[in-house]
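Fill in residues.
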């Protein structure tokens, strides 16, 4: 029997579509899922293609050409460990295992260590693009055992999304857990991007009294210019969608409680661990957590005073300001994400290719956006850029947009509309561009109560003062 090129474990939303994508690109795929219904569905969907469903992991391994290549697309966490426990004894030195789930990068590092000495090449790959992307072209961010790359490269680059210039959105990221780290940062930016768009929508609703259909037209228009991105595009589609049963805009009927699987939280936690300032990303996570307090918020809305939102200025002028605020906030979120990459790179010595990361995110993934080409170009100009905001192009855009970001944050504050992402982006921007901050007073406070010492601006050394003596 003809051997297959790759085995795919986990035939859920992503796994089945990735397997189909591989098969359509001419690679032989053997799929396995614990759920027999999913195995049967896979068999049906791949009829006529070089693909088959295996009844067990043993059968899947037996179906593969050597050195074998197995792609895991099961839920992150315990399921990956469970699969590896059964799978690794069936494999030999030289075989490749790639986990494409949203795995915490330290788990990937732990699994790599556990496989040390077996000769199995372990890879942690970021995969983005959702169901559609998996089928038609995801962005792929593989990292881990470099020996695996020659084996994976032809398959992954064939199925990956392509930019308008035909470049595959899949490149080798680096060693260790770097592929999964990059995907986690992608998701942190995704959280920030989504929350900022939600705040723009909410301001249009409260301050301009716009209907979802009217907003859809605006988002559609914005999607033609420098804000062009997948998330702006799907927002335009969502706002135009009518519920067939009630005739209302479907978005108005959705419960305002956001769920999360953890990647944005990890990005924020790791930013704190690495001492990276990432408030737009962290506030996007907090915006989801406060949305979860549905019943409490309902009570508080009747007790806690605040201004009532009312009409704010001429529609076109306010929309122009919100558009600029969105762009400025988006740039701040990317700046924070790339700072996180830079800090992790320093910590782990991964030699992360920043321009390549931006390049891989240009198509296929959820944060794909017009602006990623500019980010790629800025890291090409200055690979060691301290902060994306310091690139001349982005400094110019911020110069053009920061005043409108201020106006929009002020509007939110004055009208009692919560805009945590806009606000934190502005504070991030203002803090970063301040040659002096009030941390001198903070150091004095620390020294006052805890004799923690401080440094002076006029002479070297560490100093302590008896402040109340
Ligand atoms: N959905 C998305 O847009 C994206 C998801 N991801 C990540 O990809 C991974 C998979 O996501 P997704 O496809 O959405 O998840 P699904 O839940 O749709 O699919 C996972 C599949 O794995 C199966 N499975 C679980 N344990 C095992 C096991 N031990 N052996 C074999 N199969 C198993 C599940 O079966 P059963 O249901 O019976 O448990 C299920 O069919 C996750 O880590 C996710 O975070 C990454 C990018 C985008
Ligand atoms: O990785 C993804 C996209 O890039 C997944 O869709 C992920 O599940 C989104 O995260 P969350 O469920 O926390 O919103």
């Amino acid at each position: 029997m003809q051997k297959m090129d790759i085995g795919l474990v986990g035939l859920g939303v992503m796994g089945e579509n990735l397997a189909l994508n591989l098969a359509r690109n001419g690679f032989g795929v053997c799929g396995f899922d614990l759920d027999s219904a999913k195995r049967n569905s896979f068999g049906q969907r791949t009829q006529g293609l070089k693909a088959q469903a295996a009844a067990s992991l043993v059968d899947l391994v037996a179906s593969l050409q050597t050195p074998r290549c197995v792609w895991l697309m099961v839920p992150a966490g315990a399921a990956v460990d469970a699969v590896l426990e059964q799978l690794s004894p069936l494999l030999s030195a030289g075989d490749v295992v790639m986990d494409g789930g949203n795995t915490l990068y330290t788990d990937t590092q732990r699994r790599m260590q556990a496989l040390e000495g077996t000769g199995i090449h372990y890879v942690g790959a970021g995969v983005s693009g959702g169901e559609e992307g998996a089928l038609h072209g995801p962005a792929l961010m593989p990292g881990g055992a470099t020996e695996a790359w020659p084996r994976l490269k032809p398959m992954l680059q064939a199925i990956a999304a392509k930019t308008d210039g035909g470049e595959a959105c899949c490149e080798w990221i680096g060693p260790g857990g770097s592929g999964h780290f990059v995907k986690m940062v992608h998701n942190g930016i995704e959280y920030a991007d989504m929350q900022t768009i939600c705040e723009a929508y909410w301001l249009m609703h409260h301050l301009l009294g716009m209907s979802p259909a009217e907003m859809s037209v605006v988002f559609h228009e914005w999607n033609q210019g420098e804000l062009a991105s997948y998330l702006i595009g799907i927002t335009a589609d969502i706002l135009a969608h009518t519920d067939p049963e009630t005739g209302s805009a479907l978005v108005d009927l959705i419960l305002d409680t956001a769920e999360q699987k953890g990647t944005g939280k990890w990005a924020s936690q790791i930013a704190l661990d690495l001492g990276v300032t990432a408030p737009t990303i962290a506030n996007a996570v907090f915006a989801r957590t406060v949305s979860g307090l549905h019943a409490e918020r309902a009570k508080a809305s009747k007790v806690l005073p605040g201004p009532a939102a009312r009409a704010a200025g001429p529609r076109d002028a306010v929309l122009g300001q919100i558009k600029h605020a969105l762009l400025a906030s988006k740039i701040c979120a990317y700046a924070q994400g790339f700072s996180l990459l830079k800090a992790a790179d320093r910590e782990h010595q991964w030699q992360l290719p920043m321009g390549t990361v931006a390049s891989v995110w240009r198509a296929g993934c959820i944060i794909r956006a017009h602006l990623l080409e500019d980010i790629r170009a800025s890291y090409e100009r200055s690979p060691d850029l301290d902060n994306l905001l310091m690139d001349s192009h982005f400094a110019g855009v911020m110069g053009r947009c920061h005043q409108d970001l201020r106006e929009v944050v002020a509007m939110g504050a004055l009208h009692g509309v919560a805009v945590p992402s806009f606000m934190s982006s502005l504070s991030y921007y203002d803090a970063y561009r301040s040659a002096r901050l009030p941390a001198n007073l903070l150091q004095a406070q620390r020294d006052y109560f805890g004799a923690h010492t401080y440094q002076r601006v006029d002479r070297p050394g560490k100093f302590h003062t008896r402040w109340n003596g």
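The pocket of NDP (ligand 1) is lined by residues 9-15, 32-35, 38, 73-76, 79, 82-83, 101-102, 127-128, 130, 261 (CB under 6 Å).
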